[in-house]
Design brief:
Shape: globular
Strand content: 5-15%
Mean pLDDT: 86
Radius of gyration: 17 Å
Number of domains: 1
Order of helices and strands: HHEHEEHEHEEHH
Strand order of the largest sheet: 2-1-3-4-6-5
Low-confidence stretches: 194-200
Structural class: alpha/beta
CATH superfamily: Vaccinia Virus protein VP39
Largest sheet: 6 strands, mixed
CATH architecture: 3-Layer(aba) Sandwich
Helix content: 25-40%
Number of helices: 7
CATH class: Alpha Beta
Distance between the termini: 36 Å
């Protein structure tokens, strides 16, 4: 079932229709996600918020023995969630597109399907605007905010660095040290360097928001 506001879904449906390339960028995460797959050895994977499906298609190509499922309410052919359990749920650049009021329902639904989840989180505004004029990232929150939210539905959570200063990865399963090192090596090889001043500004904004309740939008 859909756990996201129908008006928001219609906005993303229109965006997908107007921009053939939109919803295909998650493929860039295939190498680090492959580390997670190799560590967990799942028999089934659900890509929750799969967009046009480029990432899960590559997973199927690399791991033909794994049963793969797709779900994205804004893509008609994937808009039905037809799986009740999976060994791993991947969620790449999705939660920041979900309205705050719907975040809990989405996390609850993911947790009901699997204890093992991979979240790639973006903590800043998007370059893309919705047809309504709203920024495509409607829930811009700090890593600590997401950690608290996700921990309400999963017994374990670990935050890992992402490729950019403004991204993080949250996993709800434990990695062996060797697998964590493989992941970090991939991130370091692909890291997008950011001036220290921008990184500092990002963390100061998080502290002001999370501790003092002060939001700076610029």
């Amino acid at each position: 079932m859909n756990t996201i506001d129908e008006n928001k879904i219609k906005q993303y449906q229109q965006l997908h229709q107007e921009d053939p390339s939109y919803g295909s960028t998650s493929l860039k995460f295939i190498d680090e996600i492959s580390v997670m797959i190799d560590a967990l050895k799942p028999k089934s994977i659900l890509d929750y918020g799969c967009g046009k499906g480029s990432l899960i298609e590559e997973i199927e190509r690399r791991y033909p023995e794994i049963i793969c499922y797709r779900y994205d309410p804004s893509i008609p052919e994937y808009s039905t969630l037809n799986v009740q359990t999976a060994d791993l749920v991947i969620n790449t650049d999705v939660l920041e597109h979900i309205p705050v009021a719907d975040i809990d329902a989405v996390l609850r639904e993911i947790a009901s399907i699997s204890n093992n989840a991979y979240f790639n989180l973006h903590h800043g505004k998007a370059a893309t605007m919705l047809p309504s004029g709203e920024n495509a990232h409607c829930t811009v929150r700090s890593p600590s905010w997401y950690r608290k939210k996700i921990s309400n539905y999963f017994d374990y959570i670990e935050l890992l660095p992402g490729r950019r200063y403004i991204t993080r990865v949250a996993i709800t399963f434990k990695l062996h040290d060797t697998d964590r090192k493989k992941y970090l090596d991939i991130i370091n090889r692909n890291k997008i360097n950011t001036p220290f001043s921008l990184s500092l500004r990002f963390f100061v904004k998080n502290i002001l928001r999370d501790i003092f309740g002060i939001t700076i939008n610029k």
